[in-house]
Specification:
heterodimer, A: mainly alpha, flat, B: mainly alpha, 5 helices, about 0% strand, transcription coregulator activity (chain A), nucleus (chain A), Mediator_Med19_met (chain A)
Chain lengths: ~240, ~130
């Protein structure tokens, strides 16, 4: 019995070292031949992943599962995308200078109080998008019968509805189209903003005007014969006599 | 492209001016102003027709909804453009920082692995080639 066992183990030990070197294990314990064949058979039994995984592993020995590096994109976050897309001018225009906060600074010629939120008076663009008004496909001009609905009572509007024609203070606009506005049919109510400016201008001009007038008067009086200073400086004056 | 916007802008300005004049007529209405008002109403309809004609030329233009929120709040929509550019630049800088950090880490890791596993790293460099300069 012992001789049978010894012969068996003796055969295994002889086959062990060649098996271990083929697997690439250095000084590890040699596997019996049954387990070596099982290990060789294992990968195909996993299915589709086995052959795909073994290919890069076989290509890049001794590293297992070492894949090829992905193809790098030329455009990454490493480049300055603003210069790449030629947005330097736009960046300097919007971020270099101070952009004014109010909508009236963007649309200075638009009449009405546009700086108020649209949700207050139901004039928001979002409500227009979410609930578009139901209307016909085309715009047809109003006939005589339909215009009768626009006959209005004479007299001024109630104060709560008078704000529509008031314009925000006009500023220098850089629009290409400069429309010359025709004169209003009815004299417009003077907006309160323009009056203090006009008054301020007059007040500023008045002391300057006064000074100029004073200077002019002084010059006139000096050159006139009735001026006492000139009369005193002349040699033929009465005081010397 | 700019001509289409100029055309629409011109029609809108005329329309707004017409509406403004109608508001002035209505604010203190007189019987003699009725014919003028009727004329202005018809001008308003022709103005809407002209604006609708402009729509066909601009159907490819897309406006972000976030810009509309600025307008609804009474704010300058150029602030939206400004904030977009600032966010893009900040994100660009953030990603660049990540790339630089990862590049430095890679070079440091390769150098340290080269000290510990010199033979394996030479084989790795033979497979992948030399690292490109960061």
């Amino acid at each position: 019995m012992t001789e049978m066992f010894s012969t068996l183990y003796g055969q295994n030990e002889a086959q062990g070292p060649p098996g271990s070197s083929s697997l690439g294990f250095g000084l590890g314990k040699p596997l019996p031949p049954n387990q070596v064949t099982m290990a060789a058979q294992m990968p195909p039994q996993h299915g589709d992943e086995g052959p795909a995984l073994r290919k890069p592993g076989a290509m890049n020995e001794p590293f297992y599962l070492l894949r090829e590096l992905p193809v790098g994109n030329e455009l990454t976050g490493n480049t300055n995308l603003i210069t790449h897309y030629n947005l330097e001018h736009a960046y300097n225009k919007f971020c270099g200078k101070k952009v004014k906060e109010k909508l009236s600074n963007f649309l200075p010629e638009l009449p009405g109080m546009i700086d108020c939120p649209g949700t207050q008076d139901g004039s928001s663009l979002r409500s227009l998008i979410e609930k578009p008004p139901v209307c016909g496909n085309s715009f047809s001009p109003l006939t005589g019968a339909s215009l009768t609905g626009f006959r209005l009572h004479t007299g001024p509007l109630p104060e709560q509805y008078r704000l529509m024609h008031i314009q925000p203070p006009k500023k220098k606009s850089k629009n290409k189209h400069k429309h010359h506005r025709p004169q209003d049919p009815i004299p417009q109510e003077t907006p309160s903003d323009s009056d203090p400016k006009k008054k301020k201008k007059k007040r500023d001009d008045d002391p300057d005007r006064k000074k100029k007038k004073k200077d002019k008067k002084k010059k006139k009086n000096r050159h006139s014969p009735d001026h006492p200073g000139l009369a005193g400086s002349q040699p033929n004056s009465n005081s010397l006599r | 492209m700019a001509e289409k916007f100029d055309n629409l802008e011109e029609h809108l300005e005329k329309f707004i001016e017409n509406i403004r004049q109608m508001g002035i007529i209505v604010s203190d209405f007189q019987p003699s102003s009725q014919t003028g008002l009727n004329q202005k109403l018809n001008y308003m309809i022709t103005g809407l027709q002209d604006i609708e004609k402009c729509r066909q030329q601009l159907h490819e233009i897309n406006v972000p909804l976030e810009a509309f929120e600025y307008i609804d709040q009474g704010r300058n929509p150029q602030l939206y453009t400004k904030e977009c550019l600032e966010r893009a630049l900040a994100k660009n800088e953030q990603v660049k920082g990540k790339i630089d950090t990862m590049t430095k880490f890679k070079s440091l890791l390769i150098s340290e692995l080269g000290k510990v596993f010199p033979e394996e790293m030479t084989k790795y460099k033979a497979i992948h080639g030399d690292d490109p300069p960061s």
